[in-house]
Amino acid sequence: MDKLGTLLKQANLRKSANQQIRQLQKVVERDRVLYYGSGCFAATRELICYAKAMHDLGNKTYTILDDHQRPVEIHNSEDFFKRLIAKEREAVNAYTVAYNRVISSKSVEDIYKK
């Protein structure tokens, strides 16, 4: 019975950790949102690479579709690129701290402590 109890406790811990990680993934998606000009952009690696390419090609201004498929004029490609990087790093760093806390938790109660 003791072994069964331990297995059930571990399964419950794993299930709770997976639920919390899914919740953290939603938070990081929300935290990656950058409002720039009249647009709303998710600071993804793909968009960061695109913004970097546009800047490197010498395009100081360009039009891009935001996450709601609205055309947005980017008037300063360097500023847009830097803000995307900052937003993505901020979101991922916060996620990393929370993720590491969850996976190192020894109990279900530890998982939900802030």
Walk me through the structure.
With 114 residues, this protein is of the alpha+beta class. The protein has one domain. Helix content is 64%, strand content 14%. The protein has a two-stranded antiparallel ribbon. The radius of gyration is 20 Å and the shape is elongated. It starts with a helix and ends with a helix.
Beta-strand content bin: 5-15%
Counting H and I runs of at least 4 residues, what is the number of helices? 4
As a whole number of angstroms, the C-alpha radius of gyration is 20 Å
Helix proportion of residues, in percent? Answer: 55-70%
What is the total domain count? 1
Name the structural class.
alpha+beta
What is the N-to-C order of secondary-structure elements (H for helix, E for strand)?
A: HEEHEEHH
In which order are the strands of the major sheet placed?
1-2
In short:
The protein has 114 residues and is of the alpha+beta class.
List the helices and strands and how they pair.
Layout: H1 2-31, E1 33-36, E2 39-42, H2 45-56, E3 62-65, E4 71-74, H3 77-103, H4 108-111
Antiparallel strand pairs: 1-2, 3-4
Helix pairs in contact: 1-3, 2-3
List descriptors.
single chain, 114 residues, alpha+beta, two-stranded antiparallel sheet, 4 strands, 14% strand
